[in-house]
Amino acid sequence: MICQLIGATKVYPMGDLTVVALRGIDVGVESGEFTAFAGPSGSGKSTALNLIGCLDRPTEGRVMVDGRDVATLTDGALGELRAKRIGFIFQSFNLIPVLTAAENVDLALRLAGVTENRAARVEKSLVDVGLKDLLHRRPAQLSGGQQQRVAIARALVKNPAIIIADEPTANLDSSNGEAILDLMREMNERDGVTFLFSTHDPMVMGRARRVVRLKDGAIVGEERRA
Amino acid sequence: MSLLLSLAMRNLGRNRRRTVLTALTVTLGTALLTLALSMLNGILGATLEKAAGMAGHVRVVDVDYARREQLMPLAENLPDVAAVLAAVQGQPHVLAAYPHIAMGVTGAREDQEIGERFALLHGAPEAYYRDVLHLDQFLASGAMPTADDEALVGRAFAEEIEAKVGDSLIVFGQTQDGSPAPARLKIAALVDLGSTTQNRQIWVAMSKAQWMADLDGGATEVLIQTDDFERAVDVAAGLRDLPALATYDVHAWDERSPYDQIGGLMTAIQSIAASIIVFITGLGVLNTMFMSVLERTAEIGVMRAFGLRRWQTVLLFFFEAFVIAALGGAVGIALGATGATIFGRVGIHLGEGASKMPATIPINETIYPHLTPDILVTGFMLGLAMAVVGGFLPALRASRIQPIDAMRQHR
What we know:
The structure holds two protein chains of two kinds.
Chain A: E1 3-14, E2 17-29, E3 34-38, H1 45-52, E4 60-65, E5 68-69, H2 75-85, E6 86-89, H3 101-111, H4 118-128, H5 144-156, E7 162-166, H6 174-191, E8 195-199, H7 202-207, E9 210-215, E10 218-224
Parallel strand pairs in A: 3-8, 3-9, 6-7, 7-8
Antiparallel strand pairs in A: 1-2, 1-4, 4-5, 9-10
Helix pairs in contact in A: 3-4, 3-5, 4-5, 5-6
Chain B: H1 2-14, H2 16-55, E1 58-61, H3 63-67, H4 81-88, E2 94-109, E3 118-124, H5 126-132, E4 139-142, E5 150-154, H6 155-160, E6 168-174, E7 180-191, E8 201-205, H7 206-213, E9 221-226, H8 232-240, E10 249-252, H9 262-295, H10 297-305, H11 310-346, E11 348-349, E12 366-367, H12 373-399, H13 403-409
Parallel strand pairs in B: 3-8, 5-7
Antiparallel strand pairs in B: 1-9, 1-10, 2-3, 2-6, 2-9, 4-7, 5-8, 6-7, 11-12
Helix pairs in contact in B: 1-11, 2-9, 2-11, 2-12, 9-12, 10-13, 11-12
């Protein structure tokens, strides 16, 4: 099991009120999965992703990543775990605007402390996502679909244990969205890259091999497909 | 580290208008600082050198005279000036030594009644007036005296008694035992030292003052000029060891009131001026850097998610502020130095308020900024301090951004 939520509860204070985003859920992800957390807005799918991605800590329960209890890790160790073992793809791409596509991908390697063979790895990642000719373009010179491909290359380049994608197609038109999903699926099937993503789009859910359905912070169903 | 530097440099170019605005803030602050420090240096440096020269870099007086010098007690004098002069001549760092007598007098034009017109009368060798006080450079009219009965008269006093060059002047002083001591003097020249207080003085030949005070061969003090007025304390310490001076009071100018307070005062004034400018400029930098941090919250969060450490985040923003400060500071130094150089030539008129200062703190009405390498270095370093002041809090704020913030902001 690459990562696991055990009885994870997350409560956010909102002024005098509290919002319960997750209610003691148990879920795990195995290596090589292509899994979607699905549900409407406010269902807790993004909160669950944040916990698994070590971006947040649970109010109660435990988060295990790579066999380590996240609660026992310092902020520094958590940062290192994120940098080396987890790749992120954001809904809004979130590339660094002053860096070229290649530099954005290289940034992930540098922050992970990789010093060897970086240029070749960066190029391979960008070629793998179909951006062979756009290595030196800045984000503003790329389309949304191309930017999300750079983001996938940036997540892939450090060979993480898992790539977490928060609604990766939400800001793309349907054809670009499908192309991005095809690409992710291809990498999963060809290279065994583990993907965990959130979505409320039925088309995206249809591409997942495992769908975990959430509602009001609880798991309400799960489907597995071949 | 190179990654952070490279990112910082690129980030400076992403909002050029704001970067230029921030750099201009530092430029303005540094230029102002350089000019202000040069002006203070000009005012205080000139004032101190002038004061030190007037007071004597090192002074030898009778111990009782030193104790009661506000009263200028002629009775507490140095009866054998020649012995004192012989002892100090040739000592290390001593350039010259001059006997001096100071006494309060009333005076009037010969054809007027003696009234309530007071002046400070000095008696000293002509070389003291020329080489130390440089009175020959401050003559408003007339020429340096050539005879013992001729005097230099301050312009303010001359105007009070409506006297001009060539007029006869009657002055009343006292001998050392308190008897009246009148003297008739011919006005050889009027002196304008730039301040009303300083211009209410009269300078006569040493022999005339000795005659008036009944101090034949004596003086109230011996004023010693050294090769560096800022190191007079060391010279004074050496002179105190001389047997011929053992019974006298021998002190450097800045060991004596009111000059002993001036060094600290100078530093305090310069520090206050510098602090105010650094603080205000720092606020300008703070404002734009905060804007930058707020705009880039998501981006910082993403980099934090990818492993950027908190201290690296601080460094990233610190580098940006540092580069802005270095560029703005360099331009500011150049501008400030140019301004200080120009004003150093043409001078800045302070107005008549400056001339109301007491004679012991002589400030000219026109001051000349004095730029030194120290000021350039200080100005540049304080320019960088502006970056520290203005960049630190935003950098700290940036370092506290959590990756989760990026996820939330861009969902």
